[in-house]
Amino acid sequence: MNSKMKRKGIVFSIILVILAALYLSLAQYFDVVEATKTLIAGNTEVSVCASCHNLGMYLKMPRETLCSSCHEYRWSATSEYVHEKHVQEQNFDCKFCHSEQENINQEPINIDEVTSYITKYLDQKFPGDWQVSGTTLQKGSYIENGNYRIAKEVAGLYKGSMVSIYVGQTRISSSVTDPSGRPLLAGYPTPDTVAQVMKSGKAVLTNTSSIGIITYQKIFMPIKAKGKTVAVMSVSIVQ
């Protein structure tokens, strides 16, 4: 009798798991359906998805990665809710999250798009102006030296990327770490492109390079305080 009850309990548990999985699948399906319903803007019907995707707009990275770069990821949020929250309430430009390319990491990299996205992201994450004192780099009240959050945050925007920050010829921050978790700052020559960007104040896209089987393209972008270039950030993006 007990063995029959146990078998029934196991079967019942399996059924519950299947029903739960089915429910989640249907919930995601109806999220998409809801997202394609039209919003009324005056007398104009605008499809939430089509307003971007018919123009060839794509998310710059997987949704979870993109959302988590600014706040805690909310998997249950519908596309309609996300659009209303960010565009209508917070006045974000569509290109903050979307790109005209299906994947921003595909060649060729749009240097203006990448630098603009990183700049806007850092302004949101670390409010305030850039400042440099000696080799100490500061944005608002936050100091990068010894904390390395800016390098890590930017590296998190592009899967597999590597980020370094230079003040003059000194590498003061990096997302690349040694086995103990400490950023690799010393022992590597500063690229000549750093001095070029410090002098010109203009971002530079270097030729594709490879480390093992991984291919990168590197952007050197100026960091400016009151219009003057005070530091340079290099971002190596996987191709």
Describe the structure.
By secondary structure, this protein is of the alpha+beta class. The chain has two domains: 98 residues, no CATH class; 128 residues, 2-Layer Sandwich (Beta-Lactamase). 37% of the residues lie in helices and 26% in strands. It contains seven helices and 13 strands. The strands form four sheets. Strands 8, 9, 10, 11, 12 and 13 form a six-stranded antiparallel beta sheet that branches. A three-stranded antiparallel beta sheet has the order 5-6-7, with no helix packed on it. Strand 6 and strand 7 form a beta hairpin.
Q: Can you tell me the CATH architecture of the largest domain?
A: 2-Layer Sandwich
- Give the CATH class of the largest domain: Alpha Beta
> What Rg, in angstroms, do the CA atoms define?
23 Å
Gap from first CA to last CA: 62 Å
Determine the fraction of residues in helical runs and give it as a percent range: 25-40%
Count of spatially separate domains: 2
Tell me, rounded to a whole number, the average pLDDT.
Answer: 75
**Count of strand segments:** 13
Enter the CATH topology name of the largest domain. Answer: Beta-Lactamase
Largest sheet: 6 strands, antiparallel
Shape: elongated
How much of the sequence lies in strands comes to 25-35%
At the fourth CATH level, what is the homologous superfamily of the largest domain? PAS domain
Please mark out the parts with pLDDT under 50 across 5 or more consecutive residues, or reply none.
27-56, 102-106
Secondary structure tally, helices = 7
The structural class is: alpha+beta
